[in-house]
Task: structure prediction
Amino acid sequence: MEKLKVMVVDDESRMRKLVRDFLVRQDFEVLEAGDGEQAVDLFFEEKDIALIILDVMMPKMDGWQVCREIRKHSKVPIIMLTARGDEQDELLGFELGVDEYISKPFSPKILVARVEAILRRTNAISSDSVITAGILSLDKAAHQVKVDGQEVELSFKEFELLSYFMENQGLALSREKILNNVWNYDYFGDARTIDTHVKKLRSKLGKAGDYIRTIWGMGYKFEVEG
Result:
């Protein structure tokens, strides 16, 4: 299978190298652009770029202009990077069709996890049938979960919830995001239903239940220590 191409656009070469190194380790092909004009030229030359990581503050043409130009012709997933944690910036990004918005400084591991999650969502990369994390394994095709090799019985919704957590390892997930992805947008219930399901899921998973961490006031994060 051909490697998926990710274009990294940032005027700081150090930042581009950092992101590139982490993406290459995950078997992506990485293209680099040092300013907005170069990014637009490269995008239209290559045609088969799967995702763009785009810095906001750049010479010649800033990230917003690049995003507008690309969005006229393509719905390619775009992750925006910015040093500013301004809510207005974030809103503008989503209005322009940005898929994710990450403020600097950030963890390269988290950035790569978001790249993979977006590409799974857009079916550019297939979700593996078997996902493993620590002592936990989940087989989507067989609808089976094992902890330390021992099978654990989960309800359909508990299985869906665990799948979503494991596919988004290391990411902070709000209750709203979990509802929208696991219960879908047509669910009009209370976010407390998530807490109830998480409580049951943790109990059934035993030691592996500790992988699901509570982020107070926000939601949950699935993470394996070490």
Observations:
- DSSP finds eight helices and twelve strands in the chain.
- Residues 108-121 form the longest helix (14 residues).
- The radius of gyration is 19 Å.
- The chain has a mean pLDDT of 86.
